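User: What would this chain look like folded?
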Amino acid sequence: MSRYRTHTCGQLRAEHVGSEVKLAGWVHRKRDHGNLLFIDLRDHYGITQIVAESGSTAFKQMEGLRSEYVISAVGKVVARSAETANANLPTGGVEVVVTNIEILGEAADLPMPVFGEQEYPEDIRLKYRFLDLRRERLHNNIILRSKVISSIRRRMTDQGFMEFQTPILTASSPEGARDFLVPSRLHPGRFYALPQAPQQFKQLIMVSGFDRYFQIAPCFRDEDARKDRSPGEFYQLDVEMSFVEQDDVFNAVGPVIHGVFQEFANGRDCGPAEFPRIPYRESMLKYGSDKPDLRNPIILADVTEVFRGSGFGVFARNIENGAVVRGIPAPGAAGRPRSFFDKMNDWARQEGAAGLGYIIFDNGEAKGPIAKFLDADRVALLKKLGNVQDGDAIFFACDKELPAAKLAGQARIRIGDELDICEKNVFKFCWIVDFPMFEYNEDEKKVDFSHNPFSMPQGGLEALNTQDPLTVNAYQYDIVCNGVELSSGAIRNHKPEIMYKAFEIAGYGPEVVEGKFGGMLNAFKYGAPPHGGIAPGIDRIVMLLADEPNIREIVLFPMNQQAQDLMMQAPSEVTMKQLRELHIRIHAPELDKKPS
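Assistant: Here's the prediction, encoded as structure tokens.
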């Protein structure tokens, strides 16, 4: 028997009545009923009520206890009466009448209480994260995270995948974000980098003759925080497979993701096991995003032709200069007050747009500030293209194709929320496929890679040699769930001649390819199998399953928005001795000086 406990605080039931037990845990809540003292004793597994009667040794011991003291309590299990039983607790049918208490750890005055789920400022919660993690919701989120990772591991190994670990100290690589650099003591002036992802290593694993690899991989990127992205570090299910095409990756990884969500959905609908596939350009047209939330029934429409040459001069002139018009239907919005439409316009201006024009279809008429500029034929075409009818409204975004899509996509989300028409308690998955290999960089006036430069172009070398680069698609794909990108992946470009050509189109000579990716490129010259993979984000999966709006709520020890660990006080200064060993001198930026 353990010196501290015979049972956990979540274990006792009616069958234990009459047993002498020993429990250990934290004083969760204390209640004084005069002749009786009650304590809810909490550990990792649950809560059990313990009680002491006036005049007993335990009563005097309990009087001196405060919240979050760690104690061990000895006593007898008794049944609670029907009137006092707590149906909300698994242990609520019993209590322990205590005969002796031992204090194992005292607690100072708490900067934030553990009992209850009231909100506290971020700086307090992060500085005292060990207290925050004792709270039920957050504690359960971390347990969920552990279970999700265990489930993923089991599902991957059941499919014949093997888990390998790739280096943490590696070379700097242009993955699209800033590297975290680690100075080398043995090689002055040279630096390691923490991996933004194991991209090159997992491809080299395939070249090494292994077939199915996975890893719950830590990734490090020096980038700003967002609600779905932690600053500094995150974890992903890193996957790579040899001798595969796109469908093979989908058939291996799709069931893992769907199965994990089904396992932890807690009654929510997960939809079909086979995710629908949406080409990138279709997604941008219909949803204004390559991360569409399919719970929202609104489908965007290209209504450019309705306004081309129309009497609405603002749109007509912009269309002549290369703009498009995207229609954003608002089902059933005709009955909404004028303030609804004004609020949407105000929101669009805050987003940097001129506003959102709109037309309301009510009692067989087209109404609103734009309607008078359209004749009956144009109104009929608008209703057809926008799939709107009497009782609906439709908003408009007019701009160049990409900014028009972005504004329309954001408006779609906002309108769906305002009208409360999105499905609830459901996970809607899809594959986004056929991403463009290249895009035109307006700032640098050149063709550049659109996403992952390691992706295999559809059509291979022939497509790169004969097609307009902006029409070449890549074998690249994303998994999206409820508007959240869970992962990106691709069939890799494993042929050196295709890699050289792809980088040439993007304006990079062979010396750049060999300098930045020499290790992988050299390996490809010695026989590389066709291979592909994907990397779903663990943090985002758990965030969706826990129904949390911020990734901080499912991470054990997150940083704040300024990438600071308030609990461990990192980043911190180091000693001159450490700097000298690394041959580093600090040149801190001068603070702006105000004129005296």
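The mean pLDDT is 94. If you want, I can go into more detail on any region.
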